[in-house]
Known about the structure:
By secondary structure, the chain is α/β, with parallel strands linked by helices. It is built from 12 helices and 12 strands. The chain has helices at residues 43-67, 71-83, 85-92, 118-130, 150-164, 178-181, 188-196, 219-226, 271-278, 298-316, 338-350, 354-360, and strands at 6-7, 22-23, 94-97, 110-113, 140-144, 169-173, 227-228, 231-234, 239-244, 256-262, 282-289, 324-328. The strands form 3 sheets. The chain has an 8-stranded mixed β-sheet with strand order 7-8-9-6-10-11-5-12, with helices on both faces. Strand 7 and strand 8 form a beta hairpin. It is globular and about 55 Å long.
Amino acid sequence: MLVSQFEIPGLPEEGVFGNLRHVPSWLDDDQEDVAWNDAAWDEGARQKWRDWRKRLIEFRDWVHEAAATNGSIQREQTALCKADVKYFLAVYGWMFEPRDHVDPDYPDKGWRVWALLPHQVWLLDEIVEALKYPSPQGDIVVEKSRDMGATWTFCGWSAHRWLFDRDFTAGLMSYREAEVVEDHPDSMLFKVKSILGIEPDVPGLPGWLFPEVMPNGDFFIRKKELDHKATLRQPSRTNFLRGETMTKLAGTGNRTFARIHDEAAKWMVGLRTVMTNTESVTSHRFVLSSAYIEFSDDFKRYVDYAREAHQRASERGEVAMAPRLIRLEAKLHPLHDDNWLIRKRANAEANNDIEGFEREVLINYRPGS
């Protein structure tokens, strides 16, 4: 889905906080002779996003304070969050960064406001579009550089649907069980639960956003009842998120609305096996990974299949019967400038791992070739 700009409906377009609805991105540099996904940030555009983030945080603080004791504003905010996952995450989302000096504006480690990155807005829009079709057109494959926040984005979408939807079931799968279900910040269920505020001692959502989930207002008393082993459940709405272990039978027999397959290139059983297992039990398969080929070429072949299918369909003027293909290169991130790239390469050289740099950062499936 090609667009001319990225937007978050519900955010103000004017006034004291300026235009927050429009998210500054690489698309704001009008480069007519450059392919849509090949355009690059200049320093002015990067600074515009950082300025936008600062104004967004000020808006969040204002909204949170105004809604804290005002039932009318709470109802308005709940409606805005329910209507659009981008608004929900931009105004109420939090992310965890365990490293320091990752962000020049917020150099300390810890929890921080989730100011959506432009490519995350794009990815959320693509998810919404994919849901209009069954598999394979309803599937998405994301090949990505490191540190793009793609897994957080899919977990944020899952948290939103679990909170506001009905009859929503999704499977979360990664290359090892710990990356899905364990109580540490790298796991997918930890990300979902922390966005919702179910994990203890994290910022989370305000309690008034949960009246539909817990009509009696006792969400924070009973919230751990929702968290059961490898499943996050909301039985009153038939909403379930389930973490899944990687085996040769992964995905078989478990019918779900959607499945999120994280770090798919690292699966020892092979992506092809899992995709075969899930083709008849879910309508939407979201596959994401950085480039990795130690175990098999399955992920690269899947990417190539999708790219070639879209190219053939485009030549014929048709819509491809294939997954939506998204390539998240490092240069699309507003904080991944030349200095960031130089530091990444320097670290790789110090560790004698240039191939890892080319693979994980530059999305090169054949590093050194």
